[in-house]
Amino acid sequence: MAVVTRGFGGRRPEPEHEIPPGQFVTDDFPVLSAGPTPNVDESRWELTVRTETGEGTSWSWEQLMALPAEDVETDIHCVTHWSKLGTTWRGVSLDTLLADVETSAEFVMARSYGGYTTNLPLQDLLDGQAWVAFEFEGEPLDPVHGGPARLLVPHLYFWKSAKWLRGLDLMDDEDLGFWEQNGYHAYGDPWLEQRYA
């Protein structure tokens, strides 16, 4: 004999967006930083990619703006458990920036104005996975969110998307960035809950 309780409606409906384990959805865009917001004027902004041999390629703001840009719609996930769904960004793909850079490096250290660093495998910046973003929701990127330009690597926890980006150092061997030296996971996959080492 089956027992049926009042109000039982069967299976729960599937959520519109799947989010990584341990996350909650927010409509806000929380501001979290390892230090004060640097004042980086576009007239003095520069991005430098340095290879493992020490060879460097740099772009001014005007040169970055002259490159083909892409619109990106993506969910973002912070290690502090919030996820923001359906965000829209505009930026230059790392595929474009690294197209003419000769390297055999496997790792990258992203460096920011203000001194912040974070490490990533180079393969995670290629094949349409990462951008230098300069707009958010159709507006210039606010300084508290990394403006004038930040790294956007949405498939990893958001601390990997370095704010106030100023350089990418290509490396043969992995070195740890700021949060990684302070106990965060070296990779940071939100779907695997790689929050801490």
UniProtKB/TrEMBL annotation:
Organism superkingdom: Bacteria
Region (Disordered): 1-23
Domain Oxidoreductase molybdopterin-binding: 35-179
Pfam family, one: Oxidored_molyb
InterPro entries to which the protein is assigned, alphabetical: OxRdtase_Mopterin-bd_dom, OxRdtase_Mopterin-bd_sf
SUPFAM superfamilies referenced in this protein's UniProt entry, alphabetically: Oxidoreductase molybdopterin-binding domain
Protein name: Oxidoreductase molybdopterin binding domain-containing protein
Gene source species: Krasilnikoviella flava
